[in-house]
C-alpha cells in the first residue's frame, strides 16, 4: 500500500503538461537541490492541492485504522477529486465503509459538461466502486440522506459567493451532521482560514470560519488548521 496515487490522474489536479516556464523553474529547483518541484494549479477547476490531499489521506486512513464507527461523507463533491481519493483509501485499506456524496452538480465553475457524469467517469477511470450519490441542495438531501453514523466528513461547498449565504449553508451542514458524527470522527473543513494561525490574509470563503465560530461556541471540539499551500483547510475531531 502506498500513497503515490495522490499525484496521479485522476486523483491529481490535472492532466495538463507543465508550461515551458514551469519546466524551466523546475530545472532551476533541481539545480539548486531544493528537493522541490512545482506544478500548475488552475484555481477554477483544481479544487484541492497535493498538500491537502496528503492530509486527507492520513486523516481518513487513521480513522479507519482506529476503527471509528461510521461511513464517509462529502458535502460538496463537484467532479469528485477528493471523493475519488476517499474511495481509494477505503479500498486500499479493505474497509467496509461506504462513501456518500452530496451535491446539486449544478455549479459548473469553468467545467464544460455534465458534472455528475464527470464524477462517475472519474471513478470509473480510477477503477473505483461508485459512491452513493445524493443529488440536490443540502436542505433537500440532509438529514434523511445521511448515514446513521459518520466517521469521516469533508465539507467543501464554497464557490466564492456571499460569505453570509455560505455561512448559512455551513451552519445547516453542521446542524445536520454533528449529531451523526461518532466519537473520534474527523470532519475536514475546506477553506477554513484563520489569519491568526497562518498569517495568510487571502480568505476565499470566509463563511466557513464564521459558521464554525458560531456553531462550535461552547462545544468541546477544537479546530486544527492544516498546511494546504495555496488553499486553506482545517479539521476537528468529534469529542
Ligand atoms: C468547491 S466545489 C467542491 C469540490 C470537491 N470537493 C472536489 O474535490 O472537487 C463546491 C461544491 O459544492 C456544491 N454546493 C454548494 N452549495 C451547495 C448546496 N447548498 N447544496 C448542495 N451542493 C452545494 C457545488 O455545487 C459545488 O459542486
From TrEMBL:
SUPFAM superfamilies: S-adenosyl-L-methionine-dependent methyltransferases. Pfam families: Methyltransf_24. Gene3D superfamilies: Vaccinia Virus protein VP39. InterPro entries: SAM-dependent_MTases_sf, TylF_MeTrfase. This is Methyltransferase. It comes from Mucilaginibacter pedocola.
